[in-house]
Amino acid sequence: MERNVKLLCIRHGESEGNLHKVFCATPDVPLTPYGRQQARLTGFYLRADFSPGRIVSSPYRRALETAEIIGEVLQLPVEVEEDLRERDIGEYAGCPYEVVLDDPNYGKDAPWRWRPPGGESLADVAERAVPAACRIAANSTAAEIVVVSHAGVIAALCAAARGNNWDGVSGPLNAEVLVLEYADGRLHLRE
């Protein structure tokens, strides 16, 4: 019988892109000093309230730095999963957030379906990230797994946990922990 696994989904700490309110153009954008502090505090929170046995991270620097800092606190190594990478924002890479939000083509009624020119929709992100999260949980002996990724990826995981219902779903804050549960071959919101 398959057992339930908690996925402790964490958005990376504050990055230079977050600080300047721009969509990161490259995977190598680092955390700010505040972002590193957020990651350390999240690690202490996890150590006090959970017992994770694994840490899996997006390959992007800001997520990896967050995962490594948490890993130092928890004394766990970090594994990398390519499919947890940030949404490809296409031609908007390096642009301020408001440029995207002001684009008349931006899907304000269904933003998860909107695909930036040359990029991915949040629905596209879900197609790669949800199977990756399920695979990570299904193939693990750990009962609790830290998953460090990005706002769009975690929003996609939350929507999947709600039966692909995107209504009211938004990405978490920097270093925020959202708990999902893998059971019966799919993701569930942890109540």
Shape, per Cα inertia axes = globular
CATH topology: Rossmann fold
Specify the structural class.
alpha/beta
N-to-C SSE series? Answer: EHHEHEHHEHEE
Strand order across the largest sheet: 3-2-4-1-5-6
Strand content: 15-25%
Distinct helical segment count: 6
- Tally of distinct domains: 1
Q: What is Rg?
A: 16 Å
Weakly predicted, low-confidence segments = none
N→C terminal distance: 23 Å
Largest sheet properties: 6 strands, mixed
What's the architecture, going by CATH? Answer: 3-Layer(aba) Sandwich
Instruction: Report the CATH C-level class.
Output: Alpha Beta
Précis, in short:
The chain has 191 residues and is α/β, with parallel strands linked by helices.
Write structural notes for this entry.
By secondary structure, the chain is of the alpha/beta class. The chain has one domain (5-189): Rossmann fold, CATH 3.40.50.1240. 36% of the residues lie in helices and 16% in strands. It has helices spanning 16-20, 33-49, 61-74, 97-101, 122-138, 151-161, and strands at 5-11, 54-57, 78-80, 144-149, 177-183, 186-189. It has a 6-stranded mixed β-sheet, with helices on both faces. Strand 2, helix 3 and strand 3 (78-80) form a beta-alpha-beta unit. Helix 2 packs across helix 3 (61-74) and helix 5 crosses helix 6 (151-161). The longest helix is centred in the first third of the chain and has 17 residues, at 33-49. The radius of gyration is 16 Å and the shape is globular.
